[in-house]
């Protein structure tokens, strides 16, 4: 059976999230997680669907990707990682703008489990792009107390959660409306938003954590410290709180991936007991 490239509709998004959950397991590369789709959901179900592409054979999804600006974030079924036909189809589809996956010009593919795909794209002129640092913490043992008061965000607390997000990331457009949209999506059924408060009761850091189901890796995405409260160990504290939260939700490990240039972020994760894994560059085509 040929491999079919498709653009899922809104009604198919729940199935895509379910499939992506099944692809998560300890020891796998830190690739696209249901939480990544859940976080993108803040812009609405239609926007999430428009950004999605799936590759299927005989009705079974073998790979899926979501377009984030000029970057395609890709995940592959672990059982199809060495499927040469799939890798060849992916390479052709991402390299030819008329296929409707990536636009013309400078683009990148995040494919952390695609050795065959990488080789094929390098053969047609792609190169290594921005490096990313994945980190992982096993959750077999309890996580130490973070030392801050942690509140789980509900609708009443959403304005504070969103305000901390905007104060943590200069270009953030996170709003209470977008929080409600995200929280209504299927991926958020296995997620929590956390806000950390210091001894003066100021909201100093925040995170959203995503489970992929019991016994599977959880994801921290996003996690940030309020710009007015940095340099006081709050990054380590909210990371510990986030890891503890996904452990309570049944996750076997906590994962995160950050740009390798984010030296402070990598240090905060490591100080919270995360193991730094080898850097993985995106695949890049110059326009």
From TrEMBL:
Keywords: Acyltransferase, Transferase. GO terms for molecular function: acyltransferase activity. Residues 148-287 form the N-acetyltransferase domain. The keyword Transferase applies. It is an enzyme of class 2 (transferase). InterPro entries: Acyl_CoA_acyltransferase, GNAT_dom. PROSITE patterns: GNAT. It comes from the Bacteria. Its EC number is 2.3.1.-. Transmembrane segments: none annotated. This is GNAT family N-acetyltransferase.
């Amino acid at each position: 059976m040929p491999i079919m490239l498709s653009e899922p509709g809104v009604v198919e998004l729940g199935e895509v999230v379910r499939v992506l959950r099944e692809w998560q397991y300890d020891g796998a590369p830190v690739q696209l997680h249901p939480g990544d789709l859940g976080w993108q959901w803040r812009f609405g179900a239609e926007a999430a669907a428009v950004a999605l592409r799936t590759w299927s054979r005989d009705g079974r999804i073998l790979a899926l990707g979501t377009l984030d600006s000029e970057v395609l974030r890709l995940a592959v079924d672990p059982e199809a990682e060495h499927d040469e036909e799939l890798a060849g189809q992916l390479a052709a589809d991402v390299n030819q703008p008329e296929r409707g996956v990536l636009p013309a010009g400078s683009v990148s593919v995040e494919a952390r489990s695609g050795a065959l795909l990488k080789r094929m794209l390098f053969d047609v002129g792609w190169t290594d792009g921005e490096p990313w640092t994945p980190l992982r913490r096993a959750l077999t043992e309890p996580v130490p107390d973070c030392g801050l008061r942690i509140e789980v965000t509900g609708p009443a607390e959403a304005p504070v959660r969103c305000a901390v997000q905007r104060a943590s990331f200069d270009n953030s457009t996170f709003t209470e409306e977008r929080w409600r949209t995200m929280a209504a999506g299927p991926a958020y059924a296995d997620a929590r938003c956390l806000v950390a408060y210091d001894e003066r009761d100021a909201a100093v850091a925040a995170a959203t954590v995503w489970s992929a189901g019991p016994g599977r890796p959880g994801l921290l995405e996003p996690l940030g410290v309020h710009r007015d409260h940095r340099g006081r160990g709050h990054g380590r504290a909210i990371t510990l709180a986030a890891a503890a939260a996904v452990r309570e939700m049944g996750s076997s490990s906590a994962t995160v991936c950050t740009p390798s240039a984010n030296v402070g972020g990598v240090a905060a994760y490591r100080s919270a007991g995360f193991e730094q894994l080898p850097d993985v560059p995106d695949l890049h085509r110059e326009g």
